[in-house]
Design goal:
Elements: E1 6-12, E2 15-20, E3 29-30, E4 44-47, E5 50-53, E6 56-59, E7 79-85, E8 90-96, E9 101-107, E10 109-116, E11 127-133, E12 138-142, E13 146-153, E14 158-164, E15 173-175
Parallel strand pairs: 3-11
Antiparallel strand pairs: 1-2, 4-12, 5-6, 7-14, 8-13, 8-15, 9-12, 9-14, 10-11, 10-13
C-alpha cells in the first residue's frame, strides 16, 4: 500500500496508526460469534453465561486469569470502569497506543464498531461490527491500535463495564471523529 493511500494518525514505540483513504461505505464484517474468520487480528470475543432465576439473572463479568481476562492477569495497573450511555448515543471513535481494553456490555444493546488502524497488520483498514449486550452477552478484547466505539441501539440506556491493563492516561488515547469520511462507517439503522 502506498503512502498516498493512507492518512497517518499516530505513532509510538514502533506502532504506526493510519486510516486507509476512501473506505467503502458500510459496516464492514458483521461478527456474530467468537472465532469468526473475519475478526480483526488480535481482537477476541468470548460468550458469557447468564444464570437466570425467578429474581433476575447473574452474569460473571471478570475472573482474573480465566478466559479473556487472562490478558489482564499481569497488569500492574488494572482498572475496571463503567460507562452508562443513553439511547441513540454514539461514542466513537477512539484508540489507545499502549492500553488493552476488555469490554463487557451488560445492559441494553451496543452496536460496537472496531477499525484496524495498525499499519502492517494483515487486517489494516478493516472494520468489524458486533452487536452485544444483555441479549447477546459477549466479552470483547481490544488490543492497542484498534479503533473502537459504539452506538446504543434501541430505546433503553446501555451499560458497558470494561477493564483496562493500565490506569487511564490521556496521553495514550487518541480520537477520530465518529463520522470520519475515510473510515466511512454507516451508523444508520440497517434493518428498516
Amino acid at each position: 500500500m502506498s503512502e498516498s493511500e493512507i492518512r497517518p494518525v499516530a505513532q509510538s514505540d514502533g506502532l504506526q496508526l493510519a486510516i486507509r483513504k476512501n473506505g467503502p461505505r458500510g459496516q464492514g464484517a458483521l461478527i456474530a460469534a467468537p472465532g469468526s474468520p473475519k475478526l480483526i487480528q488480535g481482537v477476541q470475543l468470548e460468550s458469557l453465561a447468564i444464570h437466570p432465576d425467578d429474581r433476575g439473572y447473574f452474569e460473571e463479568v471478570f475472573r482474573v486469569g480465566r478466559g479473556l481476562a487472562t490478558a489482564m492477569a499481569s497488569a500492574k495497573e488494572l482498572q475496571v470502569s463503567a460507562a452508562l450511555s443513553y439511547a441513540g448515543t454514539i461514542k466513537a471513535l477512539h484508540y489507545h497506543l499502549r492500553q488493552t481494553d476488555l469490554w463487557t456490555p451488560v445492559i441494553g444493546l451496543l452496536q460496537v464498531v472496531l477499525y484496524d488502524l495498525r499499519v502492517g497488520s494483515p487486517t489494516f483498514g478493516q472494520t468489524n461490527t458486533i452487536y452485544s449486550g444483555a441479549l447477546r452477552p459477549l466479552q470483547i478484547l481490544i488490543p492497542p491500535g484498534v479503533g473502537h466505539g459504539y452506538k446504543v441501539v434501541g430505546q433503553d440506556a446501555a451499560l458497558l463495564v470494561y477493564a483496562t491493563d493500565r490506569f487511564y492516561d490521556p496521553s495514550d488515547e487518541g480520537r477520530i471523529v465518529w463520522n470520519d469520511p475515510d473510515i466511512n462507517y454507516d451508523w444508520d439503522t440497517q434493518k428498516k
